[in-house]
Amino acid sequence: MKKKAVVFGITGQDGSYLAELLLDKNYDVVGVTRRVSTGNTGRIAHLMDCPRLSLVEGDLTDYSSILRIIEEYQPQEVYNLAAMSHVGTSFDQPLLSFDVTGKGCLNILEVLREHSPFTRFYQASSSEMFGDALTQRGGDKFQDENTLFRPQSPYAIAKLAAHHATRLYRQSYNLHASCGILFNHESERRGGRFVTKKITKYIAQLYTHFEKGGDQESAPLLYLGNLDAKRDWGHAEDYVRAMWLMLQEDKPDDYVIATGETHSVRDFLKASFETIGIDDYTTFVRQDPRFMRPSEVPYLKGNYSKAKVVLGWNPQVSFSDLVSRMVDYDIKQIKERETVG
Length: 341
Known about the structure:
The chain has helices at residues 13-24, 63-73, 87-92, 94-115, 154-173, 195-211, 236-248, 265-274, 305-310, 319-340, and strands at residues 4-8, 28-33, 53-57, 77-80, 120-126, 135-137, 140-142, 177-182, 185-186, 222-224, 230-231, 234-235, 254-257, 263-264, 285-287. It is an alpha/beta fold and 341 residues long. Helix 2 runs parallel beside helix 4 (94-115), helix 4 packs parallel to helix 5 and helix 6 (195-211) packs across helix 10.
Protein backbone atom coordinates (compact mmCIF):
# COMPACT_ATOMS: atom_id res chain seq x y z
CA MET A 1 0.00 0.00 0.00
CA LYS A 2 1.29 3.45 -0.92
CA LYS A 3 2.03 5.50 2.20
CA LYS A 4 0.96 9.08 2.85
CA ALA A 5 3.01 11.46 4.99
CA VAL A 6 2.20 14.91 6.35
CA VAL A 7 5.25 17.15 6.79
CA PHE A 8 5.00 20.25 8.98
CA GLY A 9 7.79 22.64 8.00
CA ILE A 10 8.18 21.34 4.45
CA THR A 11 9.48 24.67 3.12
CA GLY A 12 12.49 24.65 5.46
CA GLN A 13 15.89 23.11 4.88
CA ASP A 14 15.04 19.74 6.43
CA GLY A 15 11.52 19.69 5.01
CA SER A 16 12.78 20.05 1.45
CA TYR A 17 15.23 17.17 1.78
CA LEU A 18 12.67 15.01 3.55
CA ALA A 19 10.12 15.68 0.80
CA GLU A 20 12.67 14.53 -1.78
CA LEU A 21 13.36 11.36 0.17
CA LEU A 22 9.69 10.49 0.67
CA LEU A 23 8.80 11.16 -2.95
CA ASP A 24 11.71 8.96 -4.05
CA LYS A 25 10.17 6.22 -1.89
CA ASN A 26 6.82 6.66 -3.69
CA TYR A 27 4.97 8.36 -0.82
CA ASP A 28 2.14 10.79 -1.28
CA VAL A 29 3.42 13.86 0.56
CA VAL A 30 1.29 16.61 2.09
CA GLY A 31 3.33 19.65 3.02
CA VAL A 32 1.94 22.07 5.59
CA THR A 33 2.88 25.71 5.05
CA ARG A 34 2.14 28.88 6.96
CA ARG A 35 0.07 31.64 5.37
CA VAL A 36 2.59 34.31 4.37
CA SER A 37 2.39 37.41 2.17
CA THR A 38 5.46 36.46 0.13
CA GLY A 39 6.37 33.14 -1.46
CA ASN A 40 8.32 30.74 0.75
CA THR A 41 8.48 27.62 -1.41
CA GLY A 42 11.86 28.26 -3.00
CA ARG A 43 13.51 25.19 -1.49
CA ILE A 44 10.86 22.87 -2.93
CA ALA A 45 10.28 24.65 -6.24
CA HIS A 46 11.87 21.73 -8.11
CA LEU A 47 9.27 19.38 -6.61
CA MET A 48 6.14 21.41 -7.28
CA ASP A 49 5.24 19.63 -10.51
CA CYS A 50 5.20 16.22 -8.80
CA PRO A 51 1.57 14.97 -8.69
CA ARG A 52 2.27 13.16 -5.40
CA LEU A 53 3.11 16.41 -3.59
CA SER A 54 0.32 18.58 -2.19
CA LEU A 55 0.64 21.78 -0.19
CA VAL A 56 -1.92 22.90 2.35
CA GLU A 57 -2.01 25.94 4.63
CA GLY A 58 -1.94 25.27 8.33
CA ASP A 59 -0.98 26.77 11.68
CA LEU A 60 0.76 24.73 14.39
CA THR A 61 -0.61 26.99 17.10
CA ASP A 62 -4.21 26.27 16.01
CA TYR A 63 -5.52 22.85 17.08
CA SER A 64 -8.46 22.99 14.66
CA SER A 65 -6.12 23.66 11.75
CA ILE A 66 -4.10 20.52 12.51
CA LEU A 67 -7.26 18.47 13.08
CA ARG A 68 -8.62 19.47 9.68
CA ILE A 69 -5.41 18.35 7.93
CA ILE A 70 -5.14 15.01 9.75
CA GLU A 71 -8.82 14.15 9.24
CA GLU A 72 -8.73 15.06 5.55
CA TYR A 73 -5.53 13.20 4.62
CA GLN A 74 -5.39 10.33 7.17
CA PRO A 75 -1.60 9.95 6.93
CA GLN A 76 0.39 6.91 8.02
CA GLU A 77 3.26 9.17 9.07
CA VAL A 78 3.54 12.74 10.40
CA TYR A 79 6.84 14.62 10.62
CA ASN A 80 7.04 17.79 12.72
CA LEU A 81 10.01 19.82 11.49
CA ALA A 82 8.37 23.21 12.02
CA ALA A 83 9.84 25.54 14.64
CA MET A 84 11.12 29.02 15.33
CA SER A 85 14.50 27.52 14.64
CA HIS A 86 16.95 30.40 15.05
CA VAL A 87 18.41 30.34 18.58
CA GLY A 88 19.36 34.02 18.61
CA THR A 89 15.89 35.13 17.50
CA SER A 90 14.30 33.12 20.31
CA PHE A 91 15.82 35.53 22.85
CA ASP A 92 14.01 38.39 21.09
CA GLN A 93 10.72 36.49 20.65
CA PRO A 94 10.57 33.92 23.48
CA LEU A 95 6.77 33.70 23.73
CA LEU A 96 6.24 33.16 20.02
CA SER A 97 9.12 30.69 19.99
CA PHE A 98 7.46 28.62 22.72
CA ASP A 99 4.01 28.78 21.12
CA VAL A 100 5.25 27.50 17.75
CA THR A 101 7.96 25.09 18.88
CA GLY A 102 6.54 23.75 22.14
CA LYS A 103 2.78 24.16 21.97
CA GLY A 104 2.73 23.31 18.26
CA CYS A 105 4.09 19.83 18.92
CA LEU A 106 1.59 19.30 21.73
CA ASN A 107 -1.26 20.26 19.41
CA ILE A 108 -0.20 17.60 16.90
CA LEU A 109 0.13 14.97 19.61
CA GLU A 110 -3.36 15.73 20.94
CA VAL A 111 -4.88 15.48 17.47
CA LEU A 112 -3.18 12.14 16.86
CA ARG A 113 -4.19 10.78 20.28
CA GLU A 114 -7.83 11.67 19.81
CA HIS A 115 -8.35 11.18 16.08
CA SER A 116 -5.52 9.18 14.47
CA PRO A 117 -3.72 6.96 17.01
CA PHE A 118 -2.42 4.62 14.29
CA THR A 119 -0.33 7.41 12.71
CA ARG A 120 3.41 7.29 13.36
CA PHE A 121 4.88 10.61 14.54
CA TYR A 122 8.37 12.09 14.31
CA GLN A 123 9.42 15.10 16.41
CA ALA A 124 12.57 17.03 15.51
CA SER A 125 14.32 17.54 18.84
CA SER A 126 17.54 19.51 19.11
CA SER A 127 21.03 19.14 20.59
CA GLU A 128 20.52 22.66 21.97
CA MET A 129 18.44 20.97 24.70
CA PHE A 130 21.68 19.71 26.27
CA GLY A 131 23.05 23.20 26.83
CA ASP A 132 26.34 22.93 28.70
CA ALA A 133 25.68 19.39 30.02
CA LEU A 134 28.14 16.67 29.04
CA THR A 135 28.74 12.98 29.51
CA GLN A 136 32.39 12.08 30.06
CA ARG A 137 33.84 8.64 29.46
CA GLY A 138 37.58 8.17 29.67
CA GLY A 139 39.14 11.12 27.89
CA ASP A 140 36.08 11.74 25.71
CA LYS A 141 33.20 14.13 26.34
CA PHE A 142 29.96 14.06 24.39
CA GLN A 143 26.16 14.05 24.53
CA ASP A 144 24.02 10.95 24.03
CA GLU A 145 20.48 9.83 24.88
CA ASN A 146 21.39 9.59 28.58
CA THR A 147 23.00 13.02 28.96
CA LEU A 148 21.12 15.47 31.17
CA PHE A 149 19.24 18.32 29.53
CA ARG A 150 20.20 21.86 30.55
CA PRO A 151 18.79 24.23 27.90
CA GLN A 152 20.43 27.63 27.47
CA SER A 153 17.93 29.50 25.27
CA PRO A 154 14.16 30.00 24.89
CA TYR A 155 14.39 27.92 21.69
CA ALA A 156 16.02 25.04 23.56
CA ILE A 157 13.45 25.24 26.37
CA ALA A 158 10.62 25.05 23.84
CA LYS A 159 12.28 22.10 22.07
CA LEU A 160 12.70 20.31 25.40
CA ALA A 161 9.01 20.80 26.22
CA ALA A 162 8.11 19.23 22.85
CA HIS A 163 10.59 16.41 23.40
CA HIS A 164 9.15 15.50 26.80
CA ALA A 165 5.59 15.81 25.50
CA THR A 166 6.40 13.31 22.74
CA ARG A 167 7.93 10.89 25.24
CA LEU A 168 4.90 11.27 27.54
CA TYR A 169 2.38 10.57 24.76
CA ARG A 170 4.40 7.55 23.66
CA GLN A 171 4.42 6.11 27.15
CA SER A 172 0.93 7.15 28.27
CA TYR A 173 -1.11 6.65 25.10
CA ASN A 174 0.97 4.08 23.21
CA LEU A 175 1.52 6.39 20.23
CA HIS A 176 4.29 5.45 17.82
CA ALA A 177 6.10 8.73 18.54
CA SER A 178 9.87 9.11 18.14
CA CYS A 179 12.28 12.01 18.60
CA GLY A 180 15.47 12.62 16.70
CA ILE A 181 17.84 14.69 18.85
CA LEU A 182 19.48 16.36 15.89
CA PHE A 183 22.87 17.97 16.22
CA ASN A 184 23.73 20.88 13.95
CA HIS A 185 23.05 20.03 10.35
CA GLU A 186 23.65 22.36 7.47
CA SER A 187 23.37 22.28 3.69
CA GLU A 188 23.33 24.35 0.56
CA ARG A 189 19.72 25.23 1.50
CA ARG A 190 20.53 26.62 4.96
CA GLY A 191 18.83 29.90 5.91
CA GLY A 192 20.93 33.04 5.66
CA ARG A 193 20.72 33.96 9.36
CA PHE A 194 22.64 30.89 10.51
CA VAL A 195 26.36 31.37 11.09
CA THR A 196 27.45 28.66 8.65
CA LYS A 197 25.44 30.14 5.79
CA LYS A 198 26.54 33.63 6.74
CA ILE A 199 30.15 32.46 6.39
CA THR A 200 29.76 30.58 3.11
CA LYS A 201 27.76 33.39 1.47
CA TYR A 202 30.49 35.82 2.47
CA ILE A 203 33.17 33.50 1.05
CA ALA A 204 31.28 33.41 -2.25
CA GLN A 205 31.09 37.22 -2.30
CA LEU A 206 34.80 37.49 -1.49
CA TYR A 207 35.68 34.99 -4.22
CA THR A 208 33.78 36.93 -6.87
CA HIS A 209 35.28 40.20 -5.56
CA PHE A 210 38.80 38.92 -6.21
CA GLU A 211 37.78 37.23 -9.46
CA LYS A 212 36.67 40.61 -10.79
CA GLY A 213 40.03 42.15 -9.93
CA GLY A 214 39.21 43.61 -6.54
CA ASP A 215 42.03 44.03 -4.01
CA GLN A 216 42.28 43.18 -0.32
CA GLU A 217 41.80 46.76 0.86
CA SER A 218 38.43 47.09 -0.87
CA ALA A 219 37.23 43.62 0.16
CA PRO A 220 34.12 43.47 2.37
CA LEU A 221 34.47 42.41 6.01
CA LEU A 222 32.64 39.59 7.79
CA TYR A 223 31.24 40.32 11.27
CA LEU A 224 30.62 37.36 13.59
CA GLY A 225 30.01 36.59 17.25
CA ASN A 226 31.67 33.82 19.28
CA LEU A 227 34.27 31.99 17.19
CA ASP A 228 35.12 29.43 19.88
CA ALA A 229 31.72 27.73 20.21
CA LYS A 230 32.08 24.09 19.14
CA ARG A 231 29.43 22.20 17.21
CA ASP A 232 28.88 18.78 15.68
CA TRP A 233 28.07 19.66 12.07
CA GLY A 234 26.52 17.23 9.57
CA HIS A 235 24.54 17.47 6.34
CA ALA A 236 20.73 17.71 6.40
CA GLU A 237 20.47 15.10 3.62
CA ASP A 238 21.93 12.51 5.98
CA TYR A 239 19.73 13.57 8.89
CA VAL A 240 16.36 13.31 7.13
CA ARG A 241 17.26 9.73 6.24
CA ALA A 242 17.51 9.03 9.99
CA MET A 243 14.07 10.58 10.53
CA TRP A 244 12.50 8.21 8.04
CA LEU A 245 14.30 5.18 9.49
CA MET A 246 12.90 5.91 12.97
CA LEU A 247 9.32 5.64 11.73
CA GLN A 248 10.03 2.31 10.02
CA GLU A 249 10.98 0.68 13.33
CA ASP A 250 8.40 -1.46 15.15
CA LYS A 251 9.25 0.26 18.44
CA PRO A 252 9.30 4.06 18.77
CA ASP A 253 12.24 5.62 20.62
CA ASP A 254 14.54 8.63 20.85
CA TYR A 255 17.86 8.82 18.98
CA VAL A 256 20.83 11.16 18.88
CA ILE A 257 21.67 11.98 15.27
CA ALA A 258 25.16 13.42 14.86
CA THR A 259 28.58 12.86 13.26
CA GLY A 260 30.62 12.21 16.41
CA GLU A 261 32.98 15.09 15.53
CA THR A 262 33.15 18.61 16.94
CA HIS A 263 34.47 21.71 15.20
CA SER A 264 34.57 25.33 16.33
CA VAL A 265 33.11 28.23 14.38
CA ARG A 266 36.76 29.18 13.83
CA ASP A 267 37.35 25.76 12.23
CA PHE A 268 34.38 26.32 9.92
CA LEU A 269 35.77 29.74 9.02
CA LYS A 270 39.23 28.37 8.20
CA ALA A 271 37.85 25.52 6.11
CA SER A 272 35.61 27.92 4.19
CA PHE A 273 38.45 30.33 3.40
CA GLU A 274 40.69 27.44 2.37
CA THR A 275 38.18 26.42 -0.31
CA ILE A 276 39.06 29.64 -2.17
CA GLY A 277 42.79 29.43 -1.44
CA ILE A 278 43.05 31.82 1.53
CA ASP A 279 44.98 30.44 4.53
CA ASP A 280 44.70 33.46 6.86
CA TYR A 281 41.13 34.65 7.42
CA THR A 282 41.93 37.18 10.18
CA THR A 283 42.30 40.09 7.75
CA PHE A 284 38.69 39.69 6.66
CA VAL A 285 36.86 38.80 9.90
CA ARG A 286 35.83 40.94 12.87
CA GLN A 287 34.13 39.86 16.06
CA ASP A 288 31.07 41.93 16.88
CA PRO A 289 29.41 41.94 20.33
CA ARG A 290 26.02 42.40 18.64
CA PHE A 291 26.18 38.76 17.57
CA MET A 292 27.04 37.36 21.00
CA ARG A 293 24.21 35.38 22.60
CA PRO A 294 23.13 36.17 26.19
CA SER A 295 23.82 32.51 27.06
CA GLU A 296 26.07 30.43 24.80
CA VAL A 297 26.28 26.66 24.47
CA PRO A 298 30.05 26.07 24.40
CA TYR A 299 30.45 22.48 23.21
CA LEU A 300 28.32 19.94 21.36
CA LYS A 301 29.48 16.52 20.18
CA GLY A 302 26.97 13.74 19.62
CA ASN A 303 27.40 10.03 20.21
CA TYR A 304 25.15 8.38 17.61
CA SER A 305 26.03 4.76 18.44
CA LYS A 306 22.40 3.90 19.27
CA ALA A 307 21.20 5.07 15.84
CA LYS A 308 24.05 3.16 14.23
CA VAL A 309 23.17 -0.10 15.96
CA VAL A 310 19.35 0.06 15.91
CA LEU A 311 18.66 2.00 12.70
CA GLY A 312 21.76 1.07 10.76
CA TRP A 313 22.35 4.79 10.21
CA ASN A 314 25.68 6.48 9.56
CA PRO A 315 26.45 9.99 8.28
CA GLN A 316 27.77 10.01 4.70
CA VAL A 317 28.88 13.63 4.18
CA SER A 318 32.15 14.66 5.89
CA PHE A 319 32.78 18.06 7.49
CA SER A 320 35.12 19.12 4.69
CA ASP A 321 32.65 18.01 2.00
CA LEU A 322 29.85 19.88 3.76
CA VAL A 323 31.85 23.12 3.78
CA SER A 324 32.99 22.83 0.16
CA ARG A 325 29.48 21.97 -1.06
CA MET A 326 28.02 25.04 0.68
CA VAL A 327 30.70 27.38 -0.65
CA ASP A 328 30.49 25.99 -4.19
CA TYR A 329 26.71 26.38 -4.15
CA ASP A 330 26.86 30.01 -2.97
CA ILE A 331 29.45 30.90 -5.60
CA LYS A 332 27.25 29.30 -8.26
CA GLN A 333 24.23 31.27 -7.00
CA ILE A 334 26.07 34.58 -7.37
CA LYS A 335 27.24 33.72 -10.89
CA GLU A 336 23.73 32.68 -11.93
CA ARG A 337 22.23 35.94 -10.60
CA GLU A 338 24.85 37.96 -12.45
CA THR A 339 24.15 36.05 -15.67
CA VAL A 340 20.40 36.66 -15.38
CA GLY A 341 20.99 40.31 -14.44
